[in-house]
Amino acid sequence: MPLSWTSPNFIKLYSNDSTINPLPEPITESQDAWIGSLLTIGAVIGPIPAPFFCSKFGRKKALLATAIPLIVSFFSQAFAKNVWTIYITRVLAGISLGAGYALLPIYIGEISEDFNRGMLSQAINIFWSFGNFLVYATGPFMSYMSFNIMIAMFPTLFFVLFLLLAPESPYYLIGHNEMEKASKSLMLLRSKNKEEVEEEMLVISQQLKEQTNNRGLRELFATDFVRRAFIICLLLVFTQELCGFSVLFFYMQLIFQASGSRLPDQQCSLIMSVFVLLTSFVSPFIVDRFGRRTLLIVSCVGMFISLTALGAFFFILEETQISTAPLYWLPLASLISFIFFFNFGMSVPWTITSEILPGYVKETATTVITSLSWLLGFLCTKFFHSITDKIGMGRTFWCFGVYCLVAGIVIFFFVPETKGRSFSEIQDILKYGGVFQYSYKQRQEHQINKQEKEKY
User: Fold this and answer.
1) Domain that holds residue 199
2) Is the keyword Transport assigned to this protein (predicted)?
3) Which one of 60, 102, 174, 389 is least enclosed by Cβ atoms within 10 Å?
4) Distance CA 23, CA 79 (A)
């Protein structure tokens, strides 16, 4: 909800009507940019203390803590009377958002089982889409105060229900030698009795013994394998931002207004939010069937085509004398296509991150990747207006599209398929430098082994 909060609220904050705008005067374009981008500044900060709280106090308490800044943020926004209050609340919401993105994959990975880990990890995207749907479905049709009070109920409800119902991670409990609590946690998670979870407890204990302690930043670049894994993770997570995702969602209603579409911008945003929610159910059910790499490549190519079409519309609108009236449907169609392909594969990077990074650098790497990703989101949203003023909206969307195409090509050549592969095999692929190098080297070694066996 904090991500798409700006789309319906910017319309209100730009209004000269005091019954619509809670501020004493309409916001400026500069203030607009800060309100949109300060969320990402908070999200850069949020992941930094997250691993410490996660290890020191447990996954459950750390996740509960992420609700508090959101509750404060939304209630404060409801009664804001100046733009500085909104600035502060956006930073607070961003801290919660960044910490949540760092903590949720860890918690979900530790409470899930091998057969459903991929699907449950992708389910984060469903709830992200549901939050967007709620904002677009209610925000344009409610007053500023009522809307913010309404959305404040969700983190409040989460805090109460998660506190009462959710178990602590069995990995954390076993790691702190709280075996009885770990047994109860697993019994609740697996719907089994004490005897039936003993075997899994032994497996978890053995895994924790084999893991070395988390190491610092230097280890991310110490070996070729870890360095390649870290760079791949950066590429994939950066693609989530450099495809224009944050910009499109922060400014969706303003983009529809600028396009001069015949459809009201509120209706366009609502249609978009419904489509976002529906398409979010696709990835969890196909990620373990078609593989991570295939989804990523198709996603990048599809986003490239969608952004090229959207850029063409605005180029015709801004740079030519050709009427865009017959193409009034193109912005909505392009954004629907973009959302479909984004949801198709761009929720996969965090799954791959958890699969290719070794345990001893995972916390450090996740913190760095999450913070850098949100920093990139800040730069995109903060300077979106400046870039569009200089080169036009059409060329801006083309730049996002070109990056998607380049990312798809790089993924094709260098990102390994992790579906159904052991960690050691993924290591081998990264050690050999890429997908095709590995295939060639693997065939060579297989031939050598075969010759040695025949000779023996």
Assistant:
1) 169-210
2) yes
3) 389
4) 10
